[in-house]
Task: inverse folding
């Protein structure tokens, strides 16, 4: 029995419609939600629609729930059905399974699985369904939907965010296979010092620590086309140690029937028995401390866990480091791995990738598979960091000159952003980014044009060229338009790109003494690219730096 009360929507008009519905499926649920959404005033509809489509939105009200199902439900169903189609044949032959739906929203992952079973004519007994969701409003609706689709299943609702979960919440049972559904969640995690809603590594470690027996994972996320968001799915896979047997990434217009949908899908499994030190984990803090002070490495490791999580003690990364280190120095492989994680993230210690690698390797030497995964992640991260100068990333396109081009315009934080606009007076790249960077010359722009493949595309909703080098690496040049000299109005954004070089074309007349200088620049639209020249103060154009 669950220690949490069942949270389920009752007494609302929507609940009445669901309770009275026959042969309920996803399409009917979306139809009902859409009808309620369309009852709202048009201005409220527009506001909700815009809010739903622009980033993470907590589904904390009935209008938001209905708007989300109306706006995004069809897309999510398509992605989930595609993922379920690639579950292993052996798993689909299991007569009885449990389901855990993480950050379930209104239960979309689970109700889509019900549709999948019906579509494939698969008879599978769903014994227990665990719904985890921080929004009580969304959780109640999820329980309403799921109870209607799987009336015979034991339903457990947990109104928590991931950072508040414990191993007791995940109900492992090695005797019953578990389907883990993680849909549109992982991209919102906090990694690489970006903003997010939960700690990815902590969540993954909790899952890895808890799971037992046969576990199948379905991870579905949007494709953003840039790090770190798209890397979070694979980071989770690596952290947990999931063996993926189906992977797909598709951009806009590539996924289903040319629709403006993107997807990152991973389907995989973890089959193992989790070994737990029950005696240590059940000890009181006082008992544990005595054991640790006497030199018990297992107790020291457990203390590290408790201080890191704040379990029964005041949370302290420094204390966690202290006890992990004592245990690690005695050869505890798990402690070595966890200490490496703290060094990697800079928690309780100054961030130090080299020390993280050191402790990961010590753990790997003892056969710790988790440390092996973490070692790969940190080594890849170090590799990525080495492609940055003064905080700005560059790409080697395999050009004959060996020149490295920046991945972003001056003033931009991602390849798709237009950035600031400058008139070309002086080397603005060097002024803004430091001595290692500069504006490209005329010859270097010509090389980029002649030695690379230029593919017009839309990246994250922005038109521009993907410029692909001979080695397969690429940069994205957005069609950022230009600005006028005086009014600073943006012109031709989305259709034309204008990029300054640093090379002048000089004109002089000996008879009159007239002298002027024009600046070369690159101009492009969907049909051509040309390197030309123009007077340097009109218009204001984008700057894409190169390495000195």
Result:
């Amino acid at each position: 029995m669950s220690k949490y009360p069942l949270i389920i929507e009752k007494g609302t008009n929507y609940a009445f419609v669901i309770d009275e519905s026959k042969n309920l499926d996803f399409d009917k649920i979306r139809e009902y939600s859409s009808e309620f959404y369309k009852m709202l005033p048009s201005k409220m509809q527009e506001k909700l629609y815009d809010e739903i489509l622009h980033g993470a939105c907590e589904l904390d009200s009935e209008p938001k729930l209905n708007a989300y199902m109306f706006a995004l439900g069809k897309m999510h169903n398509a992605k989930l059905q595609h993922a379920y189609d690639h579950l292993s044949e052996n798993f689909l032959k299991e007569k009885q399974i449990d389901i855990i739906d993480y950050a379930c929203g209104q239960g979309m992952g689970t109700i889509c699985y019900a549709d999948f079973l019906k579509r494939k004519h698969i008879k599978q007994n769903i014994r227990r369904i665990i719904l985890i969701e921080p929004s009580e409003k969304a959780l109640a609706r999820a329980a309403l939907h799921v109870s209607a689709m799987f009336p015979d299943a034991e339903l457990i609702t947990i109104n928590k965010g991931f950072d508040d979960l414990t191993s007791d919440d995940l109900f492992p049972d090695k005797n019953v296979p578990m389907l883990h559904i993680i849909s549109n969640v992982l991209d919102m995690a906090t990694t690489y010092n970006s903003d997010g809603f939960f700690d990815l590594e902590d969540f993954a470690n909790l899952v890895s620590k808890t799971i037992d027996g046969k576990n199948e994972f379905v991870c579905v996320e949007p494709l953003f086309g840039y790090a770190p968001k798209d890397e979070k799915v694979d980071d989770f896979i690596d952290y947990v140690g999931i063996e993926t047997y189906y992977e797909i990434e598709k951009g806009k217009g590539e996924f289903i029937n040319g629709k403006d949908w993107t997807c990152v899908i991973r389907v995989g499994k973890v089959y193992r028995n989790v070994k737990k030190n029950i005696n240590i984990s059940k000890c009181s803090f006082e008992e544990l401390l005595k054991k640790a002070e006497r030199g018990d490495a297992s107790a020291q490791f457990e203390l590290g866990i408790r201080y890191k999580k704040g379990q029964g003690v005041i949370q302290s990364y420094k204390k966690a480091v202290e006890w992990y280190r004592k245990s690690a120095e005695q050869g505890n492989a798990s402690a070595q791995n966890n200490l490496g994680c703290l060094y990697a993230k800079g928690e309780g210690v100054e961030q130090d990738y080299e020390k993280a690698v050191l402790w990961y390797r010590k753990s790997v030497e003892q056969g710790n598979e988790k440390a092996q995964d973490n070692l790969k992640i940190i080594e890849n991260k170090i590799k990525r960091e080495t492609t940055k100068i003064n905080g700005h990333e560059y790409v080697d396109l395999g050009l004959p000159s060996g020149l490295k081009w920046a991945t972003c315009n001056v003033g931009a934080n991602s390849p798709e952003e237009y950035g600031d606009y400058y008139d070309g007076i002086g080397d603005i790249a060097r002024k803004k980014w430091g001595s290692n960077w500069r504006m490209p010359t005329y010859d270097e722009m010509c090389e980029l044009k002649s030695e690379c493949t230029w593919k017009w595309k839309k990246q994250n909703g922005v038109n521009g060229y993907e410029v692909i080098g001979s080695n397969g690496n690429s940069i994205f040049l957005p069609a950022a338009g230009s600005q006028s000299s005086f009014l600073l109005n943006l012109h031709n954004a989305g259709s034309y790109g204008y990029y300054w070089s640093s090379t002048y074309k000089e004109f002089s007349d000996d008879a009159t003494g007239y002298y002027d200088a024009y600046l070369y620049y690159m101009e492009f639209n969907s049909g051509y690219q040309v390197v030309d020249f123009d007077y340097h103060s009109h218009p204001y154009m984008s700057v894409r730096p190169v390495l000195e």
